[in-house]
Design goal:
Elements lengths: L1 E9 L2 E7 L4 E5 L6 H11 L16 E8 L6 H6 L7 E8 L5 E5 L2 E3 L1 H11 E5 L9 H12 L2 H48 L5 H13 L1 H16 L5 H15 L4 H30 L4 H20 L5 H67 L6 E13 L2 E10 L7 E2 H4 L2 H16 L6 E5 L7 H14 L5 E4 L3 H4 L4 E10 L2 E8 L2 H13 L5 H11 L1
Parallel strand pairs: 3-13, 3-14, 8-12, 12-13
Antiparallel strand pairs: 1-2, 1-4, 4-5, 5-6, 6-7, 9-10, 10-11, 14-15
Helix pairs in contact: 4-11, 5-11, 6-10, 7-9, 8-9, 11-13, 13-14, 16-17
């Protein structure tokens, strides 16, 4: 509930701080005294848009702060979700800077306006004749019925299922679209796959073939140079082997004279062994080398095939061709198995639909069960409020379509006059009747669910004295379960409050300001007397005021 409201530099308010308590609180004041300013400031701290025009002094910032007790609102999980520190006594602050920019804080943590708007629905519910238009909104009508039917958890499960169903249907449509596109490309992809697959490519094949072909194309030069290399190595007079043999022989004769000579001799021996090995390989290569025209043509044809495939697929290596082969394989498999995947997705959809249908049926039955008692309670309350002939016709019909809160279509019709035909609320009910219907609905809801603080903004406008007593009694009854604040011009309602606040204007240094104060018992008598007979009230008015208060 709202425990304190503090306002600085807003509209006609310099600085104001007022404490609120549980039960029924009354706010009264002359027309134009500033009751709408208070609601404006409260709306500001709960997330309404604002600009620098709301500042009383344009050189200073405006600060509106609300302290609310939220221990009974089950908001701990919400605070965790939006990463806010939870406090049973939470402070919400809004600042409007002279530049027009604004900042908002919850327990001193900066927040955006969307979080404030989410919070307001759990904290404070403001109702005026304008807000009663929501009575004609189907979502609001459903919310009333579902609150009485205790459908919250079922609808939450239904909404999660509906999201899952929409996602599955989107996935199915994407699969079918992909299948159509893949089918159109399937034959061509299969041709490309077979063409690549039949080639039996190896990842390093191109480099090996290019090397072999290069060797065959230069066979004459290779033969000449190999023969000359052998001649240089094995010539009996000047060959490298002969020279190394002589060098080895010379060094071996002195190797025993010192370690250094021994090392030199060993190194020459190693060189000789390596040269002998090289000569042996040169002889093998020279004997084996021969030009085979058929082999050269075969290598050339194979390379040309590889080059053509690379050009066709816009790549430069066999590695990339093999990657394309794998991609084509996946596409072909996807097409060939797509029917199975689609069937599986359709089965998932049917399963989710069945669960949703079961939930929707349970939601619908719970609604149908509470509608008779809701109609009866509304008609009884409205009869007390001077609408003796008020009748409701509320029906829910289970449809095939999935809606956001079930599969029901709702008819919420009203007739104010005996023998009158039923029609939509906004078409057949006046503003005053809508206000009383809203009050009756909130009264019924307060007995069944935990409601936030309710502020009634002159919804009693245009009703008679006797009806105003009934309205006041209903508000009193509601205030036993919740905090109720009402702005009123009727003394009968003002007298029923647990606390009575007065909004008033005063001129200070030729400047008009708005203030709010809690009245003591004597001040309250005077205020109600003024409400009864004006500023020049009589002793009779005082007596009447005391009677109302008693």
């Amino acid at each position: 509930m709202l425990t304190q409201l503090s306002i600085k530099n807003y509209a006609l308010i310099n600085e104001l701080k007022i404490d609120f308590s549980s039960g029924l609180s009354i706010i009264t004041g002359e027309t134009g005294a500033g009751k709408s300013i208070l609601l404006g400031a409260l709306g500001l701290v709960l997330g309404n848009r604002a600009d620098s025009s709301t500042l009383k002094d344009n050189s200073k910032k405006c600060i509106v702060e609300a302290k609310v007790s939220i221990a009974n609102y089950n908001l701990r999980e919400f605070f965790e979700e939006v990463d806010l520190d939870y406090e049973d006594h939470t402070i919400i602050r809004r600042e409007i800077l002279p530049s027009g920019k604004s900042r908002a804080f919850v327990n001193d943590t900066p927040v955006n306006l969307s979080i404030l708007n989410d919070l307001r629905s759990n904290l404070i519910d403001v109702h005026s004749q304008h807000q009663t238009l929501s009575l004609s909104d189907t979502n609001f009508q459903f919310s009333v019925i579902d609150a009485l039917a205790k459908n919250a958890s079922k609808i939450e499960s239904y909404k999660k299922g509906l999201i899952k169903l929409k996602n599955l249907k989107k996935q199915l449509e994407d699969l079918k679209t992909s299948q159509r596109e893949a089918n159109q490309q399937h034959d061509y992809n299969l041709h490309l796959f077979n063409e690549l697959n039949d080639t039996n490519l190896e990842i390093d094949e191109q480099e090996i073939l290019e090397e072999k072909l290069e060797k065959l194309n230069n066979i004459e030069d290779i033969k000449i140079n190999l023969s000359e290399a052998l001649e240089i190595s094995i010539n009996e007079e000047i060959g490298l082997q002969t020279l190394l043999n002589t060098l080895e022989n010379r060094l071996s004769k002195i190797s025993s004279f010192s370690k250094e000579y021994k090392d030199l001799s060993d190194r020459i021996t190693s060189v000789k062994i390596e040269l002998d090995d090289i000569v042996s390989e040169l002889e093998d290569e020279n004997e084996n080398i021969e030009f085979n025209p058929n082999e050269a043509e075969e290598f050339n044809d194979r390379l040309q095939l590889i080059y053509n495939l690379q050009k066709k697929h816009y790549v430069n290596s066999n590695k990339e061709l093999l990657e394309i082969l794998e991609e084509l394989s996946n596409k072909i498999i996807a097409v060939e198995s797509s029917e199975e995947v689609i069937n599986q997705k359709e089965s998932e959809i049917k399963e989710v639909e069945q669960k949703l249908n079961d939930l929707a049926e349970k939601i619908s039955k719970a609604r149908q069960k509470v509608i008779p008692s809701l109609q009866s309670a509304l008609q009884s309350l409205l009869s007390d409020l001077g609408m003796q002939n008020a009748r409701f016709s509320i029906k829910v019909n289970l449809k095939d379509s999935y809606f956001s809160n079930g599969k029901d279509e709702l008819q919420f019709l009203f007739s104010a006059n005996k023998g009158g035909s039923f029609g939509e609320l906004k078409k057949v009910a006046s503003g005053g009747e809508l206000s009383r219907i809203m009050l009756a609905i909130k009264k019924i809801l307060s007995e069944n669910i935990s409601l936030p603080t309710i502020i009634f903004d002159e919804i009693d406008t245009g009703v008679s004295g006797e009806i105003s007593n009934k309205i006041a009694t209903i508000m009193q009854q509601m205030s036993k379960q919740m905090q109720v604040i009402t702005i009123t011009h009727l003394p009968q309602i003002a007298a029923k409050g647990n606390n009575h606040y007065k909004v008033y204007k005063e001129d200070i240094n030729n400047t008009t300001t708005t203030n709010l104060r809690l009245l003591n018992p004597d001040e309250r008598i005077v205020e109600i007397a003024e409400m009864l007979s004006g500023k020049e009230f009589s002793e009779t008015a005082i007596t009447h005021a005391k009677e109302l208060l008693n």
